[in-house]
Each structure stands twice: as structure tokens, then as C-alpha cells.
Amino acid sequence: xxxxxxxxxxxxxxxxxxxxxxxxxxxxxxxxxxxxxxxxxxxxxxxxxxxxxxxxxxxxxxxxxxxxxxxxxxxxxxxxxxxxxxxxxxxxxxxxxxxxxxxxxxxxxxxxxxxxxxxxxxxxxxxxxxxxxxxxxxxxxxxxxxxxxxxxxxxxxxxxxxxxxxxxxxxxxxxxxxxxxxxxxxxxxxxxxxxxx
Length: 197
Fold this sequence. Notes:
Layout: H1 3-18, H2 38-56, H3 78-82, E1 91-92, H4 93-101, H5 114-123, E2 127-131, E3 137-141, H6 143-148, E4 150-157, E5 160-167, H7 169-177, H8 179-195
Antiparallel strand pairs: 1-5, 2-3, 4-5
């Protein structure tokens, strides 16, 4: 018998008891039996309903998501850091951030934000900010960034063209090698937010 079948059987037994019947024989139990107590009967119907939800979910109990405020600050173990490997293709900062966040349980821990990674790259002089002709701010590689392997590329679709920065294998490895500095930067950024509330 599978676990799901066991749950279905348990639900049948609980429903029989809630209806004042012996689940093995189908006979009504005596009126003064504890099973016929209204409060017990309601509890049994409640448990039957919970079991039905689990059965409807394929036998899986849904995990309760932590509130964002209850999640741990972003961090990586030594093993998770060693799992970070650069791609042979150039990647955007959002893809690099996704590779880093793949190492953590995002239900329990806050993700590293792309904006945090980009701000760290600005703080160490690999990116700089420029204002576009329409007044928007965007990040572009500095000469040091270009020497490391950052470059600009352009993506065009039916809405027009968008320029963005990509990171070659060497630049990705640099970020992974300096992940402790990125984590410290993220923690300091979080502290600043809390202090400015």
C-alpha cells in the first residue's frame, strides 16, 4: 500500500468515526460512546478535511513559506562557495546572481540582489554609472572592468534595443573568488536600510 493509499484509508476511518460508525464493521456505535461527543466529532471532521488537502496535493504537505522579514541574511557555506563555477559563455549580472542564489534555500534565506552585486562592482571600480540622454542612470564597465572581462552588449526585440553588461568566464570567476566581500557588502547594505528606517 502506498503512502497516499494509506492516507485515503486513514481519512475513511476518521470520517466513519466522525459519523459515529465503527470503521471496521460499519455499525453505529452506542449513543453514549465518546465518538458521538459533538466536540470530538467536529475535531475528526477537521482532521479529515486536512487529510483531504494533503491527498489533493499528491500526498505532500505544503511547506509554509517564511515571511521575508523572518528569513536569514544572505550567506554561503564554504561548500556552497566551492560549488560556484563560471560558465564558458558570458553572462549578465542577473544570471550570475541566479547561479549564486541557486546555492541557498530561498524559503529560509534572503536572496542576493542583482542591484547589490552591481553596487559592489561600482564600489570596487569595475562598473561606473552614467546618465543616458533621456535622464536614466545605467551602469557601464570602467577600463579596469573591461580589462577583467566586463563588456557591453545589445539586445534588440520588438520594443527596441537595450544595452547591458556581460561578464566573461574570467570576470565571473573574479566575482566567485571575492564572494565573501560581496556577502559583507550585502550585510552592510542591509544594516544601512535598517538604520535608516
